[in-house]
Amino acid sequence: MAKTRDFPPALRHFVKVLNSFRGYYYDYDIFRDFIDYTTACMLWNGDKQLADQLKDRYKEDYPRFGEMYKALVQTMADNMTEDLAWYDALGTLYEEIASNSKASFLGQFFTPPTVCDFMAQIQQPLEECGDKKTGLTVNDPACGSGRTLLAFNKVAPGNYLVGQDVDVICTKMTAINLALHGCKGQALNGDSLRPDHFVFGYEINPRIFTLGGLPHLVPISKEQSIAWQVWHNKEGEVKPSVPEKEKQPSIKQIILPEYKPGQQLSIFEVFEPVSSY
């Protein structure tokens, strides 16, 4: 395995587990699979197929993904000592790993945290809202790991945050980051310059209060994407709207699927099944 040595000291918990994997695994491959693992863990019914694939690929190293998840939470707790503080451990890890691995041609360089905080503080809509800084829908069309949205949530918590990115890993990192920070919104994979382009997406924490603050994700369709809905509504001014029978549920109508006991790879396995809301 290619061990990367330039990680910030704040990530020591996570890097220790990352470096404990045996065999011929590259850091990039482990991190990519960890992002898939964590995303799947936050799904209501988990992802048994992915769990089986990872178990087959990593054998006795598979339990280390659970250790990495715990290390991620511990790292965030260590670096978020104030109310509404945010910390992008995943983005920092991805920058280093993607730039120093076999996938270096995919190197990512995200906006520095201090710049994200500054950009969030100078947003004009906040000034126009006066004392009321909630009820907004905030979009980042090239969200990376979601850190600009996290910075906005620090300045004006309680708004609906929508992150879009063409990179699969970035989209999933945004979903995880927003979920773990207790935000509500969507993470969308697709080209934001092509409004009708949609690959996949997640509704983030739609029932976070019902579930006692437990972070979770719900897959959504293109028609449930807030970005597509905004574009479609504008298109409807000059084009016929979608026939009633073809309309999909709006984001306000999204409900969690029925819980199915026995599914693997889900943090919900430690809780009692929830049948209704």
Question: How is this structure best described in words?
Answer:
- By secondary structure, the protein is α/β, with parallel strands linked by helices.
- It has one domain (9-268).
- The chain contains ten helices and five strands, in the order αααααααβαβαβββα.
- It is globular.
What coarse outline follows from CA principal-axis ratios?
A: globular
- What is the first-to-last residue Cα distance? 46 Å
Tally the helices. 10
Strand order of the largest sheet: 1-2-3-4-5
- Poorly predicted ranges: 236-257, 259-277
The helix/strand series, from N terminus to C terminus, equals HHHHHHHEHEHEEEH
Number of strands: 5
Task: Write a brief caption for the model.
With about 280 residues, this protein is an alpha/beta fold.
Relevant terms:
disordered C terminus, 277 residues, globular, alpha/beta, 5-stranded mixed sheet
Layout of secondary structure:
Blueprint: H1 12-18, H2 27-41, H3 48-58, H4 64-79, H5 89-99, H6 113-121, H7 124-129, E1 137-140, H8 147-155, E2 160-165, H9 168-180, E3 184-189, E4 200-204, E5 217-219, H10 226-235
Parallel strand pairs: 1-2, 2-3
Antiparallel strand pairs: 3-4, 4-5
